[in-house]
Design goal:
With about 300 residues, the protein is of the alpha+beta class. Helix content is about 35%, strand content about 25%. β2 and β3 form a beta hairpin. The relative contact order is 0.11.
């Protein structure tokens, strides 16, 4: 779901539970989650997960849309009057829970695909079909907070940690995360080229695609690989052709024929051509001498030794 972000509202340290709410608030991309048309797909996904887990899970919960299984959806309820889905997730992964306590994870983000999109004024509504829900660290304003119920039952407001900007566009951690997202999406059957983010819902093919920057890079790599494969094929074809040509007799070689001994005329043999050759030899070097030699050779081809 494109840029869909569900703020973390509350966390219970004693049970490691976190709360969130999917509603029809426009997101950062001017898109609106359509509750009515999406509800049956969330229900079907949750029922399937409940069946597969023997009733223990109402939905699979991951961290940063990666391979880490952070926990499970403990409760899912549909608020028809409020047109919202209430989520309660139990965190079982120690590292994921630590990041919730520290305010690193700021909310949920469903991953799946678009089933339908349509314009509604300045916004675009969409029907969503989920495949998983992840804890994410989408940067938020420094003043944002969530309610933390500590082990002793005391509630307090915890601020979310805003992510600091680094001098370069992507930190090593970000690049590692992008690579992990890419590898995971490919393992799940996604095609590298694409324009939607991996967690976006692709309106056409229904496959998870890598993030925009990574998709562009993946497309460039695939095009380069195709080009290299084409060049390799042309190289192999040329190599075979060269081998074939080298195996053939060279054209324009000497034409051999058997001649009688009397035909082997040498200069000074006493015939007319021998005398003509002597006269040409006596001529000064130049164009006329060259032409005379050519005419003599054309008149009677012979092997002349001198």
């Amino acid at each position: 779901m494109h840029e869909m972000f569900i703020p973390l509202l509350k966390a219970d340290a004693n049970q490691r539970l976190v709360w969130g709410r999917i509603d029809e608030t426009p997101d950062r991309s001017a898109e609106i989650f359509d509750y009515a048309s999406s509800k049956p797909h969330f229900a079907a996904w949750s029922n399937e997960m409940q069946k597969n887990s023997g009733g223990k899970s109402l939905g699979n919960l991951r961290a940063m849309h990666g391979p880490t299984a952070a926990g499970r959806i403990e409760e899912m309820s549909f608020d028809d009057p409020g047109r919202a889905i209430q989520l309660v997730a139990r965190i079982v992964d120690d590292d994921a829970w630590r990041k919730v306590e520290e305010g690193v994870y700021t909310g949920f983000s469903p991953g799946g695909r678009y089933l339908k999109r349509w314009k509604e004024g300045a916004y675009t509504r969409y029907t969503a079909q989920p495949a998983e829900i992840s804890l994410v660290d989408l940067p938020c304003i420094p003043s944002a907070s969530f309610t933390m119920v500590k082990v002793d039952g005391i509630s307090e407001q915890r601020p979310f940690r805003a992510l600091a900007k680094e001098g370069r566009r992507h930190s090593a951690t970000d690049l590692s995360r992008v690579q992990l997202l890419h590898d995971t999406s490919v393992a799940l059957g996604a095609a590298c080229p694409g324009e939607a983010a991996m967690t976006d819902m692709d309106a056409g093919g229904g496959k998870m695609a890598p993030s925009g920057a990574l998709a562009k890079l993946a497309g460039e790599i695939e095009r380069l690989q195709d080009g290299l494969a084409k060049l390799a094929g042309e190289r192999d074809s040329l190599a075979r052709r060269i081998a074939e040509l080298e195996a053939q007799p060279r054209p324009g070689g000497p034409a051999l024929r058997a001649i009688a001994k009397g035909e082997d005329v040498r200069a000074g043999s006493g015939d007319g051509d021998g005398d003509a050759l002597e006269k040409i030899r006596a001529m000064p070097d130049g164009l006329e001498k060259s032409l005379a030699l050519i005419k003599l050779a054309h008149r009677k081809p012979m092997v002349v030794r001198y």
